[in-house]
Amino acid sequence: MEDQHAPLEYVDNIRQSGLDIYAPIDVGNPELWIPSQEMEFLLNSALKGISLAGLPLRTRSKVVKAAVCKAMGYPVPPSFRKTQPRFPGQCLDTYVQKSSNLQIWNEELAPNRRYAIIKAQDDTIVKVKVVTGATLARLDTTGTLTRKYQARIVPGDADAELISDADTNNLSQITSQYHNTTSFTVSPTSHPSIGQLMPIQSIYRALTPLVGSTFVDAGIDQERNRGGELHRQVCAALGYQSYQDDGTFPDIRHQLIEVKLQTSRTIDLGLVSPDSEDPLDTPRLGNVQARHCDVRYVVFCAERSNTNVILTRLYVSTGESFFTRFVRFGGLVINAKLQIPLPGSFFDD
Description:
alpha/beta; 5-stranded mixed beta sheet
């Protein structure tokens, strides 16, 4: 894992700071903000094996929240306030799951909030997964999300379009330091780092040759597997020696790339509007905090032919410029409860 700190360093920093869980911390603070990957490691190390057998619901909730506090280095408060989220300092909520049906009552998913989904089996905690609301939104197959951004593709004459000639001003000072690496040994899901963040023009040049290529269709009911095969090809084209997809936003975190495979003209964007200036849950790059609008969107259009998927068009854009090319649309629906079915592979490494 490519970190600014090892996970336990964040814990030590928080202990020494004297802060409690309600003290605000800027996203990406290099000393005190625990990135989601490191958060997941800490919570798994501290919570796995804790027994909840025989505990009333309210007591069980308090035991879990106390364990989460200790895992992050915070003191356990005498009582927990009814805040949203429950751990404001790290923008974190916790849910203990005995089933695969995640229920969120009386509030929308927040795209930048972290959700620690804690799996309990036979009343014992066996696994913790930390994801953002944007990632959870991808799992909503019921259509119950209260907010969902979408856009429409209007095809042009070109098979490949670079919508943004350059990265955002915020990110360009980092991509200008790119070392022209032709091969990456780190995982595509590692944190981005100075010297290895490709400029958007380099990304476009590397991926344009994929237009016209084919791969075996995983089937209309296997959209995630179909997208996974595209991610594998994108990673290889960018120079990664290995492929990994942990289902989080953005797909290729190391390059701040979100990949979309479109067999229709409607692009589902979930809870995150590409032009949002909200910070990403990644460590700062020098003095730069990456934002959603800095993410590079790679949109492949495709057609199904018998048992194959054929990539027909490519669009590459920053989130900031996304809606200069694609048509924004969407609506708002109010629901009292969200029910999100967690896939069987959700807790897999």
